[in-house]
Amino acid sequence: MTTANEYLKNVLAAQTFAEDSEQLKDLEQRRKDVEKVLRDKSGSSPTIRYGGSKAKGTMILESYDLDIVCYFAHDDTSGGETLEDIYNNVRKTLEAEYVVEQKGSALRLRDRSGQTSGIYIHVDVVPGRFTDESKGDVFLYRSTGEKKRLKTNLDVHINHVRDSGVRDEIRLMKLWNVRNVVSIRTFVLELLVIKTLDGNASDALATRLEDVFTEFRDNSEKLSVEDPANPEGNDLSELLNDSVRSELASVAGRTLTLIGQSGWEPVFGQVEDKKANKQDAVRRAATAVTAPTKPWSREA
Amino acid sequence: MTVPWHRANPALFEKERREVEEAYPLLHVHVADDTVFIRGTYAVVFEAKELDRYVIEVELAKDHPRSLPIVRETEGRIPRVADRHMNSATGDACVILAVQRWEVWPIGRPLREFLDGPIHDFFLGQTHFEATGEWPFGEWGHGEKGIQEYLAKLIGVEDPRAIVRHLECLAAKKLKGHWPCPCGGGKQLRTCHLAFLGRLAQKIPRTVAKELVAAARRI
Questions:
Q1: Taking CB atoms and an 8 Å limit, are B49 and A295 in contact across chains?
Q2: In this complex, do A289 and B121 lie within 8 Å of one another by their Cβ atoms?
Q3: How many Cβ atoms from other residues are within 10 Å of residue B142's Cβ?
Q4: What ipTM does this complex have?
Q5: What is the pTM of this model?
Q6: Contact flag B140-A295 (C-beta cutoff 8 Å)
Q7: For a tag on chain A, would you pick the N or C end, based on fewer CB atoms within 10 A?
Q8: Are the beta carbons of B93 and B86 closer than 8 angstroms?
Q9: Which residues contact A58 (CB under 8 A, 6 or more apart)?
């Protein structure tokens, strides 16, 4: 009989990339491709670095991304005069090769070719401008919300998560978030998990996760987060608005009910090689449908 | 401005929400910007075993249940191409042929049945396609071709003009024997396909036939 903690460890193991996995190789190639597109346009001028879940050590197979930051020096106007110009110029450069979706300060890239058109390539590009010569803090443009400029620091963010001591919990909460499509930004979720578990004495992963869910369910109105890179300057309350809080509380409550009724497995599913015998199982499942509906396409 | 359905009919909203969340523990109903969404993981299950999982969002129309919900696969796993029955511009899934709705999920049926039927079949079909390269239940042609295929199958005739004529007869209050037969053979209906049309009239309600005439004329 697998205990709750063993089960959750198995979930984490199933969500971990093998060192030589095709996905990692593919991601590496994508990264090179994107950097080439940016360099071809901007030369050696911007600082192009890598962030996101890979740098933080919180990647999960089911939802992974690579943030590529493209920061121009504080006195460099080759990428644009204003932050908005930089954001839009980088966007236009990328649009030559990708379908680009604006997501706050980031630009989300989707494939634009043939049969893989529209597939997220797991790369987000974050344009910005360093605040000074030290190349630490940056200003980012925000395409949504009232405040259009954000001051932040990539290294502070990465270190805050990487050194939090709760990366397993963060990875599982990210998986929970992905599976439930809660409209909370991953960055905010990470901060909430770190804050909620700060000083938590339990060493059982399952208990700690339940503590997070309980906090979300019972105290959603009191939840608050600060940007570790700019606690006073960046107001994150917009990212944790009433709609997000109520959804967080509702889904966390349903998750706790599910755990209480049936244990953890319904929350994250069976951990096994789902590819094995899949063809046969899927064929049998299709045969069992008595009055099936056929898919269509509006596009000719 | 029209009041969205969930505020106009809170009892229906509560019923739909309760039924969906009871049947699908990994889906939740959430209202954002005055729009009702169903979000979460849709598990494709067979014989109590999970075959696959899709992370989805179903956006209910403001006039639900009149208009069809919009279904999205939010992980970006399914390519946004017509051949995978995904709208390339919006990423919406073409779960069913809109003109076939009256047969597969008529207006007024519970929302849960949309998840049990069309959504289940769509995602099982996607998993089947990924595993085998085949659509298990077939697929409709893209765009108007699919509508044409469906109407031809429903009426049992291929000629688009004959389809319109048949549907016009079915949309009429009463079939009249002296009408020219919609088959185009030149005889009166009473000496040609009257019995055939009578059987069709039993299968296709007049209100549906009226809507189908409009769809057939657009082709």
A1: no
A2: yes
A3: 16
A4: 0.75
A5: 0.80
A6: yes
A7: N
A8: yes
A9: A161, A167, A170, A171, A174, A190
